[in-house]
Fold:
Amino acid sequence: MIEKLGLFGLFIGCLLSATIIPFSSEAILTSAILLKYNKLACVIVATLGNTCGGMISYLLGYWCKWQWLEKYFHVKKEKIEYIHKKIAPYGVYAGFFTWLPFIGDIIAIAMGFIRVNPYLSCLFMLMGKLLRYIVLIYIINIFL
Structure:
């Protein structure tokens, strides 16, 4: 995908990976780096794509009915309620951890469900995802 679509493909791949669609943004970013794309451009594009995807998950929680989430996206209400209890004390700061595998999407959906500030949520999502990609590029540089 990266070879044909370039940075646009990186953006779309990272966006999709931050939604409930199982995808690995780290693998896509690593592929782009191995294909000799500009590292700074890749980090910026991947961060923006992944943050947009995180906000899509946030909006799922904000706008969707539980029946839709369970039926179409296989997100159980009990899981959201459990995550809600864990993140409620942290509010927007929980957005920093939406990059985490497996639970990041659930955190974003729960943040939308409890209606934390969308602008600050987006900011903290962006910071967490940016830091993750910076660390990934650093690790790639060590091994290349």
